[in-house]
Amino acid sequence: MFDNSAINLDTLKKRAYNLRWAMVPEGVIPLTAADPDFPSAPAIAEAIKEFVTERYLCYGPPDGLPEFKYAMADYFLTKRNFRTAPELLFPVDSAAFGIYITCKAFLSKGDEAIIFDPVDFLFRYSIENLGAIAKPFSIPPGTNDIDFDRLEQMITKQTKMICLCNPLNPTGKVFTKKELEIFGTIACKHNLVILSDEIWSDIIYAPHEFTSIAAINEDVRQRTITVTGFSKSYGLAGLRIGAVACSNEKHYQLLFEASLHQSTVHGANIIGQVAATAALTKCQDWLAGFVSHLTNMRNICVDGLNEIPGFNCISPEGCYVAFADITGTGKNSKEITDFIAESAKVAVVPGLKQWFGAGAEGYIRLSFATSEEILREALSRIKLVIN
Ligand SMILES: Cc1ncc(COP(=O)(O)O)c(C=O)c1O
Q1: Which one of 234, 266, 321, 322 has the fewest CB atoms closer than 10 angstroms to its CB?
Q2: Ligand 1 within 6 A of 197 CB?
Q3: What CATH number should be reported for the domain holding residue 329?
Q4: What is the whole-number distance in angstroms between the Cα of residue 95 and the centre of ligand 1?
Q5: With a threshold of 0.85, does the pTM exceed it?
């Protein structure tokens, strides 16, 4: 299932955008956007085929298809250990939009929201688009001792929200239950809404274990908005499908209003919901196989990067990206990225503020959701040119 033979490069070159195969010059290997090189699970294609065969592609309910809502509520209860309800969650056209509407629902102009640094750009982007202020809280790669005093010192009267990204893209940190308890206590003490982006929560490497912050206790659950999606675990990025879940009616109303779904100006398309429902109900064995393959790729990627002079990479606990410290090369992340693209014909993501925040400088990010052959080829090309 996850052999090199499963990868269809001809199709990827036509379909894989967002800095990937369809966007790089011939001969370049893109380890850029975190989107798998493997096709999605067969059960997803079957579910879509079955649905479209009847040829009725009518408007769906603005708050989502019942089967999607029930499957999602069951997922949060059984896999993430917290109770929401079909009436307290709805599909959105991506985790990205889920982040955006959560910020829109709870932040006004001039409000402050705490984001991690480094972290995916979507948090800062959403907050700043709404006229609010993103305050970066530094969690450098490899941090096992979070400075919670510093976090508390950052909180002012204007601070309304804390944004968790768990596991943390790009560093691959999986927050421990103890750490989440402290985040939760601080959020309760200062009356902050918690936005927890858990899109990566299926991609966890043993012995690390994932905990949803909403599962910590009742007070924390009541102030948490959980956002998730299907791009990472199931390779459904092009279907633009995710979900937003909360634990009370008041939050639900704010989120749903912010989504503009009722007016049909926005909405999650029904095929995405059918695919996501199939993913949750029929693809758990496929997902286990994918994570097992990724565990091997993670080890190969980290070992390979650490053999390159001037590179240093910690092993991610979750996510399928490696975040390598390249400061030992004497170059900055943009220079190294350009050099590797030019000389090794491998595309990676530079640790620029625009992608991950100011704390990402000195790093590059590589996705390893590919075959062993492609990954080894990319690593050996980088090693050769850096040598
Ligand atoms: C932490 C995080 N959140 C959200 C997203 C966006 O997901 P989607 O494709 O569902 O918009 C990504 C994609 O890289 C991500 O890494």
Answers
A1: 266
A2: yes
A3: 3.90.1150.10
A4: 6
A5: yes
